[in-house]
Amino acid sequence: ADTYLQEGNASYAEYLLRDALPKLTLSNDTELGGYFVGLLGWAQVENGNTEDGEYLVRRAMDIAAQLDDHRHERFWRRLLGQWALAKRQYSEGIEHFRRAIELYPERLQQSQDFIQVLCRAAFAAIYNGELIQAKTYAAQAQNLAEEANNSHLKHIAQGLTGMVLRREGEITEALPLLQTCFEYLLQDRADDTLLSPIEVSRELATV
Known about the structure:
There is one protein chain. The chain is built from eleven helices and no strands. The chain has 207 residues and is mostly helical. The longest helix has 18 residues, at 10-27.
């Protein structure tokens, strides 16, 4: 079912999950059952049933937290954080990303997933008015991206730093970071929701 979700076939994923959940309930496997509840919620959100779907994902997150299942808790927090950003609920978004960051074990703190969460946390913090925290997240993301030789995430992090600097009135420092990020995003064809060229162009328009 998660494969169908990843491929965008949420309707079939929801059908499979509704069929599987009663059997999982009988098995008393709380961890797996919680994960499938979350997947069902995710499928429902993708199918337009946002309220019920988000409720199930929060329930899955709570189950994972109760079981100290950090991998699944941070997975659901990342998803809820992204949905919060899409609705411009930045306070909720930053709380999910902040907690997700805390849940990554040291061995994964140089992974692409971790850097992406840092970038999302920086974005949420910027729009929640937490500029010092945003700058910290963006700097950490940039350092890790450079170490990993990940040009895409490095440019995203630089753009986020530029957004912070612009809000702090440091226009001279912000401008080249924003321009470089904007030019890179225009050329890059990656399907990335971390930061869009439109978002960066709005920043440049106010410099």
